[in-house]
Amino acid sequence: KLFFTDYGNAAKVERCDMDGMNRTWIVDSKIEQPTALALDLVNKYVYWVDIYLDSVEVVDYQGRRRHTIMKGKQVRHLCGLAVFENYLYTLNSDNLSVLRINRFNSTDVQSLARLANAKEIRVYQKRAQTAVRSHACEVDPYGMPGGCSHICLLSSNYKARTCRCRTGFILGSDGRSCK
């Protein structure tokens, strides 16, 4: 799945399949300007920062069990969000600091470092990486991902795929080759 935020005409947090199909709103109320998003892949939670409502919130992948992690003016300058173990990591654009927020006890907030110029944060740790299994977009014997001549996108599950073409090409009737 692909998770993303939108704060156009109607602010929301959404998810869809990697090929863009099955687009679903998971948060569409009491939300104004969601700017940063992070996933807890183990427990299947979606965290986001709403800089208009000054809040950090969480829901499960289906949009249930919503609750506020942190609220207040200190949230207004947060950008970027990552989750690892019991903590959320974010950047404060006002004082250029990296913050660590306990996601179960929001009074436990620590400034870890200062950076000259950053807008995003990621956690790279072996335990945070999911195991890769065989999937529909693996390269076939002819070197084509998922048998697609240009682009292979995973669909509703790891066994299904959708072929797409680069700009200026159209997908052939076989659903795999581009012309």
SS elements, strand count? 13
CATH class of the largest domain: Mainly Beta
Strand order of the largest sheet: 4-5-6-7
Query: Which stretches are low in confidence, meaning pLDDT under 50 for 5 or more residues running?
Result: none
CATH A-level architecture of the largest domain: 6 Propeller
Oligomer: single chain
Choose one word for the global shape.
Answer: elongated
Distance between the termini: 28 Å
As for the number of domains, it is 2
Mean pLDDT: 90
How can the largest sheet be summarized? 4 strands, antiparallel
What is the percentage of strand-forming residues? 35-45%
Strand and helix order: EEEEEEEEEEEEE
The CATH superfamily of the largest domain is identified as TolB, C-terminal domain
CATH topology of the largest domain: Neuraminidase
Number of helices: 0
Describe the structure in brief.
The protein is an all-beta fold. It has strands spanning 2-6, 12-16, 24-27, 34-40, 45-50, 55-60, 67-71, 78-84, 87-92, 97-102, 109-114, 151-154, 161-164.
3D architecture notes:
- The protein is mostly beta strands.
- The chain has 2 domains: 122 residues, Neuraminidase (6 Propeller), CATH 2.120.10; 44 residues, Laminin (Ribbon).
- Helix content is 0%, strand content 40%.
- It is built from no helices and 13 strands.
- The strands form 4 sheets. A 4-stranded antiparallel beta sheet has the order 4-5-6-7, with no helix packed on it. Strands 8-9-10-11 form a 4-stranded antiparallel beta sheet, with no helix packed on it.
- Strand 10 and strand 11 form a beta hairpin.
- The mean pLDDT is 90.
